[in-house]
Design a protein that fits this description.
This protein is an alpha/beta fold. It contains 13 helices and 18 strands. Helix 1 crosses helix 2, helix 3 crosses helix 4 and helix 11 crosses helix 12.
């Protein structure tokens, strides 16, 4: 019995015996522990002739395996098909169940520091959620990130590697090709680009978890390293509040790419209503945020006919400190959409949501002389003086100015500003 060569890429298993190839995709195991897969048999010696095309087979069933071998024998004699099908079924089931190989964490090279596709919002090779209410331009933000990544463009807070141009796959459950092209052209024009960058686009209607092998095929074909999913509720294919649906989604996501290169994922989410503490999360099961590596919330400030102001707020990170909120004024003009940096501390709707030290720092920076008493700061921020005084004394960014009893900024004190 000649053993085949088995190559597994994500969820696709390919077994070869010389010119004979059996490909098994969409492998699933049900609650009765039956493993089923979509089997394609190809003989390259016959000019890539398909002996069997995309037949769903119960690999765990002896009767199903015997029937498959018999049908293949009728198409191409001279091959021990029963032997080949038995090998294929056993090897695919074993590979499907064994998961990733175990490793000894004390061995091997030290891991790299976290890398970013777009710093600081998209850690490379990880899933990131961007969520917000309707009307905060989440689709345009996703498109903006796609353009930055595919062209190596850095703007303001968002930094990319100019020597690393991403291949982008945009999976869209919400709009269509025309709208996607329109947005891509408008955002590109806003960045001063003459043409739309290459972005592989697909309008989707089936659940993400049921498209895993098809998505994997596109990732391998186009060497995709950045995937946008717009958006999570239709992509999950059911009740977004179901933890099972969220887990199913992430299982499919984590199987994509290769061991050498896992894609970066930007997952566009809708937003829940405020809870009792006034917090908002990604709409649906908590599993959506539990299994994401970064979560960002987009908030809406002022809104006019042809422009909106938004802030982007760091809600979850697995490594490093939180990033201070940052914002944009998005201008919508005929054929052009422009993202302009804004200081969120200058926007009343956003300033009130900032952390207390950030609010104090912004207030001192825009105050003549860059110094104020704790009493005046408390009045300006409509906060309790005792809490303000405690924050000032415990935060290294501030300093006490002895000559007049006010507080200033430590960075300016070091420059001799308060001497």
């Amino acid at each position: 019995m000649t053993a085949p060569k088995l190559t597994t890429t994500g969820t696709i298993h390919v077994l070869t015996w010389g010119d004979l190839e059996i490909r098994v995709e969409r492998v699933r195991e049900n609650s009765q522990y039956e493993v089923k897969g979509e089997v394609t048999v190809n003989d390259r010696s016959l000019g890539n002739s398909y002996l069997l095309g995309r037949e769903r087979v119960n690999l765990s069933s002896g009767m199903a395996r015997k029937g498959l071998a018999k049908r293949l024998e009728g198409k191409a004699g001279g091959v021990d098909w029963f032997d080949k099908i038995e090998q294929m079924s056993g090897m695919v089931i074993d590979r499907h169940r064994e998961g990733e190989p175990e490793v000894d964490l004390s061995e091997g090279p030290e891991p790299k520091e976290m890398e970013y596709l777009i710093h600081p919002i998209l850690p490379k090779g990880k899933p990131t959620i961007v969520h917000g209410k309707g009307g905060v331009a989440k689709g345009y933000i996703a498109c903006y990130c796609a353009v930055l990544a595919s062209t190596g463009t850095s703007v303001g807070m968002l930094k990319t590697d100019p020597n690393y141009l991403s291949n982008v796959l945009y999976l869209d459950w919400e709009d269509d090709e025309d709208e996607a092209k329109r947005r891509l052209r408008e955002v590109s024009a806003g960045l001063g680009l003459e043409h739309r960058p290459p972005v592989v686009y697909q309008h989707c209607s089936r659940p993400f978890s049921g498209m895993g092998d098809a998505i994997q095929g596109k990732i391998l074909k186009h060497n995709i390293d950045f995937v946008v999913v717009d958006s999570l509720i239709p992509a999950c294919g059911g009740d977004a509040n179901s933890s099972e649906k969220a887990e199913e989604f992430y299982r499919a996501l984590n199987a994509l790419g290769t061991k050498e290169q896992a894609p970066t994922f930007l997952l566009v989410g809708h937003q829940s209503k405020q809870n009792l503490t006034g917090q908002t999360t990604t709409f649906g099961s908590g599993v959506w945020e539990f299994l994401a590596r970064r979560v960002w919330e987009v908030k809406l400030g002022s809104q006019e006919k042809d422009q909106i102001e938004i802030s982007i707020n760091d809600k979850k990170r697995n490594r490093g400190g939180f990033v201070d909120p940052f914002g944009y004024r998005i201008l919508f003009e005929p054929g052009v959409v422009t993202f302009e940096d804004i200081d969120v501390a200058d926007v009343p709707e956003f300033e009130r949501g900032l952390k207390r030290p950030t609010r104090i720092k912004a207030l001192l920076e825009r105050t003549p002389g860059n110094a104020m008493t704790a009493h005046d700061i408390a009045e300006a921020l409509e906060d309790a003086q005792g809490i303000i005084a405690t924050t000032l004394s415990k935060t290294k960014a501030f300093c006490y100015i002895t000559r007049d009893g006010s507080y200033g900024l430590e960075a300016l004190r070091k420059q001799g500003r308060y001497d």
